[in-house]
């Protein structure tokens, strides 16, 4: 992993007490793993994909093939999801909403952002943090902001009745812990977005959580919200990992609600930036975001849902007033005590490893290994 981070260092301190799901690359191909009591089991003969494994819960780890203790695992770790859709919710924190307004008003110009930020924080910073989205108080705040000429489409999803939900990446396009993470080569103002990501099954039940980096291009989205697709969905622009921790008696959705998500960026020139995203400041409950994602849509293979971030870097990196933007070679670490550390090194999306292993390749590999036939036999047994 970049930054000399080993798998053991990436795991939460209490990893022996948790149950985790992930994926590894074996000699035969990608295989889902289940970790229990510190031991790793290859579950491919039980369920050939993580999506199917999640649907089969609860399942005994011992039904799989033992790969030994987790701290001795020497197989390459992949992103922990496969067939799940990768969805994301934006502007779920009030302070983040203010930053989105700044982007919009600055039209993607970082230098113009400083003055705008000060004025907006003075006008709406206190009120918007306390308002409940969709409430009568939110409607009153909206009316006041419109009257003052400060209303924004970002504030609409921050305090209005509807959450922003978008597709972050195609199926199988995410990268895992230790992989390169990409930004567009033509972006000049961008940042990581450290988030917690829920893993949700086809019934809409959140079964676990992992860490994620929802890389954002502030210049593209700032010029126009219609450029969200280019700002968010690029080669290697979405990382997840290191593993999905399953909910149980020792790790629950309340741990997600109370999590402090840490971020550290170490640049090739010695630059260092640290920040946190406090989940207790989220404007919408994580399960409400799951509900809205599924309100008019079905996900037969489940989905991974980014919950948004409070973090928006404003610390100058180079020229005064220019704020933060990535440089190639940045090592980004996202962490929480219960989920571990997700470490990735920044490159351009053009230079990142090309995404070539899609659904056709996966299905062909599973068929060659006889796993689709075995899964069908298990389902009809």
Can you tell me about this structure?
Mean pLDDT is 90; it is low at 1-5. By secondary structure, the protein is α+β, with helices and mostly antiparallel strands. It starts with 6 loop residues before the first helix and ends with a helix. It has helices spanning 7-10, 50-55, 94-106, 113-130, 136-147, 153-159, 218-223, 228-232, 253-257, 286-294, 359-368, 371-380, and strands at 20-25, 30-36, 39-42, 65-69, 77-78, 85-90, 164-169, 180-183, 190-191, 194-200, 206-214, 216-217, 238-246, 260-266, 272-278, 303-306, 331-336, 340-348.
Strand content: 25-35%
> What is the terminal-to-terminal distance?
42 Å
Q: Count the E strands.
A: 18
Helical residues, percent: 25-40%
Mean pLDDT rating: 90
* Order of helical and strand elements: HEEEHEEEHHHHEEEEEEHHEHEEHEEEHH
Which regions contain 5 or more consecutive residues with pLDDT less than 50? 1-5
Furnish the topology, listing elements before pairings.
Blueprint: H1 7-10, E1 20-25, E2 30-36, E3 39-42, H2 50-55, E4 65-69, E5 77-78, E6 85-90, H3 94-106, H4 113-130, H5 136-147, H6 153-159, E7 164-169, E8 180-183, E9 190-191, E10 194-200, E11 206-214, E12 216-217, H7 218-223, H8 228-232, E13 238-246, H9 253-257, E14 260-266, E15 272-278, H10 286-294, E16 303-306, E17 331-336, E18 340-348, H11 359-368, H12 371-380
Parallel strand pairs: 6-16, 8-18
Antiparallel strand pairs: 1-2, 1-5, 1-13, 2-3, 3-4, 6-7, 9-12, 10-11, 10-16, 11-13, 14-15, 14-17, 17-18
